[in-house]
Design a protein that fits this description.
The protein is an alpha+beta fold. 40% of the residues lie in helices and 13% in strands. One of its GO terms (molecular function) is zinc ion binding.
């Protein structure tokens, strides 16, 4: 005991981090004030305050010891209640030899205090029965029940073999009445099985039946698990055949569900119930596929994310890659069966056609034009069927709205808008891929309307609300090519156009809503800009004298006539003009021939509907009005011969107004 004079004159304390060193009483004692010369201590008057203080300290220490011991005792009792292993583990009272107390403690579980059964060792070197420690860790938390050192089920290991041999060689008294035999712990199960006449044999059956420690069920191989649960499986099978029509899976899952609910593990129980009802605890494969596509994850990146989430949460929230591939098959063309009447000319009758190589079927010879590109596409008819099946609910809902539920088989008339445009620069900034063009072209289609002829009227049961949205624009062909490369474009898109031409003269038979229905298609090639129209219709480029893609006007004629226009060009006429250009039947000069064919210089291979898209209309209108406003500012009607400098001033005045008043960029 030492005195500290910092806080109070007589504060007794013990060191925190080391054991107290007790010294024998000596002549120079600080407590009883004995002098160092060994002089007899004078009789001092009793210090009542000190005595009172020491009495209070002693009382507090006694109470603390009692509370601590009581806490330990309560904790021990609680753990024994949790394990509840009295019927399956053997008591140390059955030991035939009167072993020392420390030895008995070493071979008994520190939770249930029974003889160790299937012993495991923690990282802090404490020994427990496997079932006891697993139950305690689950309920009490991840720490050792003996020393509160952090401990997890994965940290548990089997003790050394020498210790297990000692455990198996312990001598026990048989608990069965009228049997005074002493047996080794390792042979206890074998001995007990000899008591055939005993009814309640399972009460005394030790969990360790074999010579080596019995492993936990979950740590066994699948084969060993089957062997151990064989009898239970037969009982469940008998019950299922008798009561549930042979549905063993439902019986087992219901048992598992009830076990989870009884332990108040409702979250796991809810997940299991979701799986039983076919909903699953994780995301749907199609949702996972959408996440992968929209976040631009490669397959390996998605797989890494899937493994990480599964390892961290312990749940399969995301679905594995093979499930995504299966879901993808149902979403891509080539999944739904269909039929054409009559069969499409030069097109296979096989309907299970997914993504195909855009270059497949092209003849390769030395004289052919070399096509250095990558192209992928769907077969046109399979892609149309997939698009219609995606719209199945909308089509059936439209029929219901117009009270046409009884209009069973059709024909349904489908208007399809075709689009094709260059996608600009798609070059690889890093890495080295194949030597292909750094530009891409995309050919796609949109289902615009679906109509039914009912009586003498056409009823529109579906109309695309946002026809320019990328969500309704279905891709048909993607190629790494320049849109100005006429030969490559012709070679890759020609099979698509052949399929389209075949579909115009045939009827599609497709099962929708459980009824076989017929569909006819009308194709309108309106999704092309001027550059591509000139390309696919075989016209000269935009710098040509023949300024218009809709009529035969030259630049001079167009400038003289700004009011009256009429659409005169057509795909058929362009084909005829190409034949004239190719064969020159009248033996004319180049200029005369060019004037005859009105700017057709290549073979048209896609039929486009003569039209101009809204974007180019807006650009043209804006440019036209920009010019008109400048003329108004400069009052050109008064002075038509204004100089270049004056016109520049008009433009800058308009630009200033647009910036300041309208908050617009003049460009």
């Amino acid at each position: 005991i030492q005195r500290k004079f910092s806080s109070s004159p007589y504060e007794v304390y013990f060191p925190r981090n080391s054991a107290m060193e007790w010294q024998p009483h000596s002549p120079n004692c600080d407590v009883c004030h004995t002098s160092c010369q060994g002089i007899k201590r004078k009789k001092q008057p009793p210090n009542l305050q000190l005595a009172k203080r020491l009495k209070i300290i002693a009382e507090r220490a006694r109470k603390n010891r009692c509370v601590k011991n009581q806490g330990k005792l309560n904790n021990k009792n609680l753990m024994k209640k949790i394990t509840n292993c009295k019927k399956i583990h053997l008591s140390t009272k059955l030991l035939a030899v009167d072993y020392p107390v420390d030895f008995v403690k070493a071979i008994s579980c520190q939770i249930c205090e029974h003889i160790l059964s299937d012993p495991v060792e923690t990282t802090c070197r404490h020994l427990f029965c496997r079932t006891c420690i697993l139950k305690c860790l689950k309920v009490m938390g991840s720490y050792c029940p003996s020393c509160l050192y952090p401990c997890f089920p994965t940290d548990l290991v089997t003790p050394v073999k020498s210790f297990l041999n000692i455990l198996d060689s312990l001598t026990l008294r048989c608990p069965v009445k009228e049997c005074d035999e002493e047996i080794l712990l390792g042979k206890y199960g074998q001995h007990l099985s000899s008591h055939k006449e005993l009814k309640g044999k399972e009460i005394y059956t030790h969990i360790n039946k074999g010579g080596r420690p019995r492993q936990h069920l979950l740590s066994l191989t699948r084969r060993a698990q089957k062997h151990r649960l064989r009898e239970l499986k037969l009982q469940v099978k008998t019950f299922a055949e008798k009561e549930e029509g042979g549905d063993i899976k439902a019986v087992c899952m219901t048992l598992f569900l009830l076990a989870l609910r009884s332990k108040n593990e409702h979250r796991q129980a809810d997940e299991l119930e979701a799986i039983m009802q076919g909903r699953g605890s994780g995301l749907h494969p199609a949702v996972c596929l959408a996440i992968r596509v929209n976040t631009f994850l490669s397959c390996s990146q998605y797989h890494k994310m899937y493994r990480t989430v599964k390892a961290v949460t312990g749940r399969q929230i995301f679905q594995p890659l093979h499930a995504l591939r299966t879901a993808e098959k149902a979403l891509l063309p080539g999944y739904h069966p269909f039929e054409w009447k009559p069969l499409l000319k030069n097109v296979s009758a096989n309907t299970e056609v997914g993504i195909i190589d855009g270059l497949s079927g092209l003849p390769h010879s030395v004289d052919d034009y070399p096509i250095d590109t990558i192209a992928k596409r769907f077969r046109y008819d399979a892609a149309l069927v997939s698009a219609l099946m995606d719209m199945e609910e909308d089509i059936l809902e439209g029929m219901k709205t117009h009270d046409l539920d009884d209009y069973l088989n059709g024909p349904f008339t489908v208007v399809v808008k075709e689009s094709c445009d260059g996608m600009g620069d798609v070059s690889e900034k890093h890495g080295c891929g194949p030597a292909v063009p750094e530009k891409a072209v995309r050919f796609s289609f949109t289902v615009m309307t679906v109509t039914i002829t009912h009586g003498n009227t056409n009823v529109r049961i579906f109309e695309e609300v946002k026809p320019n949205s990328e969500l309704c624009c279905k891709p048909l062909c993607l190629m790494l090519a320049d849109e100005s490369d006429h030969e490559t474009l012709t070679a890759i898109l020609s099979p698509l156009i052949a399929e389209r031409e075949a579909m115009k003269n045939s009827v599609l038979l497709l099962e929708m809503g459980g009824i076989l229905r017929t569909f006819k298609f009308i194709f309108r090639g309106t999704g092309y800009d001027e550059k591509l129209v000139r390309e696919v219709e075989g016209l000269e480029a935009s710098g040509s004298t023949y300024i218009c893609t809709l009529c035969d006007a030259t630049r001079l004629e167009a400038s003289q006539n700004l009011v009256l226009h009429s659409i005169t060009r057509s795909h058929t006429e362009n084909l005829e003009r190409y034949e004239v250009w190719r064969s020159n039947p009248y033996h004319e000069s180049v200029d005369e021939l060019r004037d005859r064919v009105k700017g057709v210089s290549a073979k048209p291979f896609i039929e486009t509907v003569p039209s101009i898209d809204a974007l180019h209309c807006d650009i043209g209108n804006a440019a036209e009005f920009y010019k008109i406003f400048q003329f108004e500012i400069g009052e050109v009607y008064k002075n038509s011969d204004a100089s270049k400098e004056e016109r520049k001033r008009w433009q800058s005045a308009l630009d200033k107004h647009l910036r300041k008043k309208m908050n617009l960029k003049p460009i």
